[in-house]
C-alpha cells in the first residue's frame, strides 16, 4: 500500500518551488517511529531548500493502529453542512469496509484538526473511550468556567484523567485540570445508555457530541 506522495509546493515565505514527500497514511505498527514524528510535528513539513522556512502541509491523513484497533482520519477541511458531512462519513465507510473489522467498533473517528488527531491517539492509547473523555471534558470545563479556548486530554495517571487547557490561539497550555476516574465511570454509564448508534460507523466525537449526550 502506497503511503507517501511527492508534491510540488511553493514555500509560503519565499515562493520557491519545493518537492516534498508527504505521508498520507501511517500504520503505526509498521512505522512506529512515525508516531513520534507526529507528536513532535516532524512529519508532513515543508522545509524550504532556499530559505529554510518550515511550514506544515495539511493533507487528508489516516492513522491506523492495527494492534490497538483504532483508526483516525484527519480531514483538513471542515464539511460545509450536514449533507457534506454525511457524504464524507459514507465515503470513508465504503473505502474502509474491507480493511477494518468489527474490533475497530467505536474507535473509528474523523477529526478536522491536527491536534485533535494527537488527542485521540493519546486517549485510545490510554485505553479510554473518547466519547466519555469528551463528556468529562465538557462537564469539568463548565464547572471551572473554562469555555473560551480548548482543552485536550493529556494523560491518565493515579486514577485521574489529566487535561491541558489552552487559551485561544495559544500553543502552550495555560492551565490544567483533572477528572477522577470515578466521574469517568459515571459518565460512561450515562453515555452507554444514551448513545444508541452502532459503533461500526465513522463518527465525529467532539464537544458537540458531548453536549448532545449530557446537556440536553
Ligand atoms: Zn522559502
Percent of residues in helices: 25-40%
Spatially, the strands of the biggest sheet line up as: 3-6-7-8
Q: Major sheet: size, sense and barrel closure?
A: 4 strands, mixed
Overall mean pLDDT stands at 92
Overall outline: globular
- Give start-end ranges of low-pLDDT stretches: none
The structural domain count equals 1
Cα gyration radius (Å): 18 Å
Alpha-beta content class: alpha+beta
Spell the H/E element sequence: EEEHEEEEHEHHEEEHH
Termini distance?
Answer: 44 Å
Bound ligand species: zinc ion
Query: What proportion of the residues form beta strands (DSSP E)?
Result: 25-35%
Q: Your description of this structure?
A:
The protein is of the alpha+beta class. The protein has one domain. The chain has 6 helices and 11 strands. The protein has a 4-stranded mixed sheet with strand order 3-6-7-8, covered by helices on one side. A 3-stranded antiparallel sheet has the order 9-10-11. α4 crosses α6. The longest helix has 15 residues, at about 80-95. The protein is globular and about 55 Å long. The chain starts with a strand and ends with a helix. The mean pLDDT is about 90. Zinc ion binds near residues 16, 48 and 50.
